[in-house]
Design brief:
Layout (H helix, E strand, L loop, with lengths): L1 H6 L6 H14 L20 H13 L5 E5 L7 H16 L4 E5 L5 H4 L5 E5 L2 E6 L4 H7 L10 H9 L9 H34 L19 H16 L6 H17 L8 H24 L1 H4 L1 H9 L5 H31 L5 H28 L3 H18 L19 H13 L5 E5 L2 E4 L4 H6 L4 H18 L1
Parallel strand pairs: 1-2
Antiparallel strand pairs: 3-4, 5-6
Helix pairs in contact: 3-4, 9-14, 10-14, 11-15, 11-16, 11-17, 14-15, 15-16, 15-17, 15-19, 17-19
């Protein structure tokens, strides 16, 4: 349905597109599973045969004059393979489409379902004609099939230069060359006969109107693409969002953090700073690694749909980001609501609001970084490894663990979003003139604390602007 809305041109109304999609669903015998999800490695969906037919259906929606299929029966059992080939044969029965299929060693019943067979060996044609005439042809040139041998096995042996079990290299070369030469000498006569037969069969026939004349043009506007893709991605994400495991993980981390830092105060300044660092790390790594895996997981689908000019990449990217936002932002909101009051951070509405805003800002920037890495490195293993290196460098250079970073690498912190988030979160909780107990009956200014003194409070506008540049920049790169 989504393919019809995206690939069929605007000269066709939405209702007509839906009717066309329903026709294809019925034609392919997919009515039973038309409301089922496709599924994946972790979610059960349609069967292998149904998946193949759905893939074919996406292509025949536009009534193409020629349909090319590469091994559509691979990985299917005999029943599913027969269903797929029967459906392809039905497409050609009305004279609307020519279907060209590459197939490897089909079983006999499947073999005879094809109108024409082209047998290849190292790119050279050995036979082209009807399947039920193969035995007669090869017998006429001296290569008779043994009675007890399956026809398809016999043809595969001939394609490999093997006849009557003789595997000698020299004999195989002779067989192969003989078959190629015989085909060349007989091909012209057979083609003339076939052409005459085709002309006789097609007299008086007419072609149906096609929509493949729109190939090369954008069938829909950007806004239409975005609207359709938004609905499609929402349906896809419905099965991933807020899983029991994700919610359980969030609650465990939130309550464990709240218990460990239970009702701390400004006098426990170093402990509170430790909590802030933990929150930054968690809400930097989690969204980043999730985003790194986004494009590699959908790479094959994107390549296929982009090759058919189904939609613009920008409309897909924005629709994907918009649908990711609810889940990406809901989880950190719950985390902050639970932990903020348990930990005992500054109990004012302003401080709470700023803390929540900064954490969400951090999530969005981290997600953008992950998208940039994932789109640049399509391999999920390499992408995750590279993301780990980048995040580790940013975390270490931001001053979380090392106060005196060597000057020749200290510049890295200005590229790190963690550094600016750290400054903003510290600024939301403390002022330079705030006092805390730094020893027995001794009070010190917060601004004199070694960690805060090194990071520095103030200049919040610079930090917000720097994060904004990263937020936009990473997504532009992606």
């Amino acid at each position: 349905m989504f393919t019809a809305l995206l690939r069929l041109p605007n000269t066709i109304t939405k209702e007509e597109k839906i009717i066309r999609a329903e026709e294809v669903i019925t034609q392919l015998g997919l009515t039973r599973c038309k409301n089922s999800i496709m599924g994946g490695p972790f979610i059960r969906g349609v069967s292998g045969g149904e998946r193949k037919r759905v893939s074919i259906g996406q292509e025949i929606l536009t009534n193409p004059s020629l349909l090319l299929l590469d091994e559509p029966t691979s990985g299917l059992d005999s029943t599913s393979a027969q269903q797929v080939v029967s459906m392809l044969r039905a497409l050609t029965s009305e004279g609307r489409q020519t279907v060209l299929v590459s197939i490897h060693q089909p079983f006999s019943k499947l073999f005879y379902m094809f109108h024409k067979i082209l047998l290849l060996s190292d790119g050279n044609p050995l036979y082209f004609g009807r399947g039920n005439e193969t035995i007669e042809y090869f017998s006429s040139i001296g290569y008779s099939s043994p009675v007890a041998v399956n026809l398809c096995d016999f043809l595969v042996d001939l394609a490999n230069g093997v006849y009557l079990g003789d595997l000698a290299d020299e004999r195989r070369r002779d067989v192969n060359q003989g078959l190629v030469l015989a085909n060349k000498s007989n091909l012209l006569n057979r083609m003339k006969e076939e052409e005459k037969l085709e002309v006789d069969n097609n007299n008086g026939s007419s072609r149906h109107d096609r929509t493949d004349k729109y190939i090369g043009q954008r069938p829909t506007t950007w806004g239409q693409e975005f609207s359709v893709l938004l609905k499609r991605v929402l349906l896809e994400r419905k099965h991933e969002s807020f899983s029991v495991l994700q919610v359980a993980q969030l609650l465990v981390v939130s309550f464990l953090s709240g218990i460990l830092w239970w009702k701390s105060s400004i006098n426990d300044l170093d402990d509170q700073i430790g909590f802030i660092i933990t929150a930054i790390m968690h809400w930097s790594l989690y969204p980043m690694f999730n985003a790194i895996l986004t494009f590699p997981e959908e790479r094959m689908m994107l390549i296929k749909e982009q090759s058919s000019r189904m939609y613009r990449l920008s409309s897909y990217f924005i629709a994907r980001n918009v649908t990711d936002l609810p889940m990406e932002l809901a989880l950190p909101i719950i985390f902050v609501i639970i932990t903020y009051w348990m930990v005992g951070l500054k109990p004012t509405v302003r401080s709470f609001s700023v803390t929540l805003f900064v954490i969400l800002y951090n999530v969005l920037v981290s997600q953008g970084l992950g998208l940039a890495i994932g789109s640049a490195i399509m391999n999920p293993v390499i992408g995750s490894a590279f993301g780990g290196i980048v995040s580790q460098a940013f975390l270490l250079a931001s001053g979380f663990y090392i106060r005196n970073v060597p000057s020749f690498v200290s510049w890295i912190k200005y590229l790190s979003h963690n550094f600016y988030v750290y400054k903003l979160l510290l600024g939301s909780q403390y002022k330079n003139d705030d006092l805390y107990q730094c020893g027995a009956n001794v009070s010190c200014r917060v601004g004199s604390n070694p960690t805060i003194k090194k990071i520095g409070l103030g200049n919040e506008v610079i930090s917000v602007v720097a994060l904004g540049i990263m937020l936009v920049g990473y997504r532009v790169i992606a």
